[in-house]
Design brief:
The complex is a heterodimer. By secondary structure, chain A is of the alpha/beta class. Chain A has 16 helices and 5 strands. Chain B folds into 2 domains: 175 residues, Rossmann fold (3-Layer(aba) Sandwich); 59 residues, no CATH class. Chain B is 37% helix and 25% strand. Classes of the chains: A alpha/beta, B alpha/beta.
Chain lengths: 414, 313
């Protein structure tokens, strides 16, 4: 009988024993109590919006001879233009043989709100639909530069810009970071709610003495993995339930919104929605298995309910630590912090889900899933050995210092 | 000759400084009912756990059903642990099917067998009751059925009679004999000698973590001399009677008990008749497993006590 079938026997028992209880209903509705977390999330999202503003830019592709003049005029006009926030950051690009490629890239970047190209006297200004000020600011820069280069006494405008509107397609980097943050927050919320449940799972078997029957009949690895999979099934049911409710609510809301508002809300993660959602779900599974595996292993060593309750606090801190790291990674893609969060096994699922929002590559996700699966196996392996040494009091030689442990009670304690 | 179903050699298990098992060896033939006997804390359960691969021995080796890896033959083994355990939220039949499924029996087949076997035991009414609603004895019978539902080749029962009323004890004895008749090998751990004497073909007596005896029940009983029970006339004078009887004679309930003298009972009878003490009753009996157990374990206890005192001194 293979290990997976044995694991399935355990998983089936655990799944039914949890779902077929009134307590599960309370558990299912627990997100209502998590509104506090949502508010915390809202505050973080606000910070993210601020950060998003700072990523908006305007671009001027100008002759090399006018570049210094544009910089000087920008420095002079910026403090007195556009209210307290000021105009978006100006990027000056020399108009040379290669600037067509750069222009195409800037057109596709939703964070670039307006682009000026050509001479100061007759510039062409491309602006996003509905973004009037950035284009006007670029026009005023061109006017000032043209004036400095021509007859300063003229009362007529010396620069004659031609405005064009470019499609508002594509999602800006900032918005994608926001999506990444949302993915981190959603996965964290679900794992906080669900993976923590595994901490007391083996306590049931220890309490009612079933553990000896399980330990005699199937490998402990099957017991551990079965328990995780059983609880994952519960989590999946939970996610499906709320996913359907939220999805239905979103559909209703979208039908009520005008088309323009829907267009404005449209966001696209870098890897596309299907892959983003698919990977998000798989990363949730991985986060659940990784964190749940740790909690199951730690909880299995606890002897009493009180010990389990006491373990909950450090476990919550641990989860929040991983969340904080992953949030930092989502807000600063490509940084060292992000790399650490993507490699650290317990934050990797969160951080990689966020990466999907800002990076279109698929292969890092495949690699990360393999890496995380390896750690799931390792976590279960370590948990089983700790359980054998600590509870069954077998295989103590796994720890080199176990031989010098103080005299133990004659029988295993569970 | 058939290979032993269980062959354990020199099993050692220490829990920290506590020496639970010290070099126990066992060999159990196919189709036997084998008793592992010993007082509380003797190391019986630890030995059984090592045999089943639940815990690893510090030293020694073990072959179960021909395999050096006991876990690899777990589907052919049935186990009733000393500490009973069932999920309280499951029904009796679900519990039995669950235990069968753990040992490789398909769940639907497990449910069918559970119903049939509970009915055989007169527990059909309990089949669909939650375990938490069953009495302790009924729970225990459910767990026993669960341990046997997949028709294992080897059955290990750790203190199976503990907590059962006499009716259920009788029922359990019949179940054990039926399993033996089916061809299963049974290892039975107990400290109630009456069950072992009735059921076991061979026994190992473990005390202080060491095997003190291994053989048939008759071998164990033969370790003690035959006992004599003598009942004199009521009017007999106890003091003069004691002078005639062997020095180990002890009076209890108007009856004297002593080991059969080396020269037999005839010279003693002649002296009793001559002394006008009369003979209301006289019997010569082989001591039971209980007495043999007490002697073997008592010696172990004395040795350990002496060793402890020596260490303390």
């Amino acid at each position: 009988m293979n290990i997976l079938r044995q694991a399935f026997v355990i998983a089936r028992r655990d799944f039914i024993s949890i779902v077929a209880t009134p307590t599960f209903l309370l558990f299912l509705l627990a997100p209502l109590m998590m509104l506090g977390f949502a508010m915390v999330g809202g505050a973080s999202a606000g910070q993210l919006v601020e950060a998003a503003g700072s990523q908006e830019r305007i671009v001027a592709i100008v002759p090399q001879s006018e570049r210094a003049a544009y910089a000087a005029v920008d420095a002079r006009l910026r403090p007195i233009s556009g209210g307290p926030a000021g105009p978006p950051q100006l990027i000056l690009i020399p108009a040379d043989a290669d600037h067509r490629g750069a222009l195409a890239a800037f057109r596709a970047d939703a964070d670039v709100l307006a682009i000026l190209e050509g001479s100061a006297a007759s510039p062409r200004i491309l602006e996003r639909k509905g973004e009037g000020f950035p284009g006007r600011y670029l026009a005023s820069l061109a006017e000032a530069v043209a004036r400095e280069g021509g007859s300063a006494a003229s009362t007529q405008p010396v620069s004659r810009p031609a405005f064009e509107t470019i499609a508002a397609s594509g999602t800006g980097r900032a918005a994608q970071s926001g999506l990444g943050y949302a993915a981190v927050f959603a996965i964290f919320l679900l794992t906080l709610l669900l993976a923590g449940q595994t901490v007391g799972m083996l306590a049931e078997e220890k309490g009612n003495k079933v553990i000896e029957i399980l330990a005699a009949a199937v490998p402990l690895e099957s017991v551990y993995f079965g328990k995780l999979v059983g609880m994952l099934g519960v989590a999946l049911l939970f996610v499906s339930f709320w996913g359907l409710l939220i999805g239905a609510g979103a559909l209703v809301a979208i039908n009520q919104l005008p088309q323009q508002a829907i267009s404005a809300l449209a966001l696209e993660p870098a890897i596309g929605w299907p892959a983003f959602l698919g990977f998000g779900l798989v990363y949730f599974f991985m986060a659940f298995l990784l964190l749940g595996g740790v909690f199951l292993g730690v909880g299995a060593l606890a002897g009493t309910v009180r010990e389990i309750q006491m373990l909950s606090l450090p476990i919550t801190f641990f989860q929040i630590g991983m969340f904080a790291l992953s949030t930092a990674a989502a807000n600063a893609p490509g940084t060292q912090v992000a790399t650490i969060a993507q490699w650290l096994p317990w934050s990797s699922p969160f951080a990689m889900a966020a990466l999907g929002a800002t990076d279109a590559s698929i292969w890092p996700h495949l690699f990360a899933l393999g890496w995380q699966a390896l750690w799931v196996g390792l976590t279960i392996w370590v948990g089983v050995r700790l359980f054998r040494a600590g509870v069954l009091r077998s295989g103590g030689s796994w720890w080199p210092w176990a031989k010098s442990a103080p005299p133990a009670a004659p029988d295993p304690v569970y | 000759m058939d290979q032993p179903v269980v062959l354990a050699e020199g099993l050692v298990k220490h829990f920290g400084a506590y020496r639970a098992v010290e070099g126990v060896s066992l060999s159990v033939a196919p189709g036997a009912v084998y008793g592992v006997l010993g007082p509380n804390g003797a190391g019986k359960t630890t030995t059984l756990r090592m045999l089943l691969g639940i815990i690893d021995p510090d030293l020694g080796s073990c072959r179960l059903l021909g395999s050096p890896r006991p876990r690899s033959v777990a589907t052919r083994v049935g186990y009733l642990p000393e500490e009973r355990g069932l999920y309280p939220g499951m029904t009796a039949r679900e519990s039995i099917a669950f235990m069968g499924a753990l040992r490789g029996l398909p769940r639907p087949e497990g449910l069918v067998r559970a119903d049939a076997r509970l009915a055989t035991l007169g527990l059909a009414h309990a089949a669909k009751q939650k375990v938490r609603r069953l009495s302790k004895g009924m729970s225990q019978m459910v767990q026993l059925v669960g341990a046997l539902v997949h028709d294992p080749e080897l059955i290990v029962l750790d203190e199976p009679f503990s907590g059962l009323d006499p009716v259920n004890q009788e029922r359990l004895e019949r179940m054990i004999l039926a399993e033996r008749d089916r061809g299963a090998t049974i290892i039975l751990s107990t400290h109630v000698m009456a069950h072992a004497q009735r059921l076991c073909d061979r026994v190992a007596i473990i005390a202080g973590g060491q095997r003190r005896f291994e053989g048939t029940v008759e071998d164990a009983r033969a370790m003690l001399p035959l006992g004599v029970r003598y009942r004199p006339r009521e009017s007999a004078d106890a003091a003069s009677l004691a002078a005639l009887l062997p020095s180990d004679a002890q009076q209890r309930d108007g009856e004297w008990r002593f080991n059969l003298p080396d020269d037999g009972v005839e010279p003693l009878l002649a002296a009793l008749v001559a002394g006008h003490h009369g003979v209301e009753g006289l019997s010569i009996e082989r001591p039971g497993l209980h007495e043999a157990f007490v002697k073997i374990v008592g010696e172990t206890h004395d040795e350990r006590h002496a060793a402890t005192m020596e260490q303390a001194a």
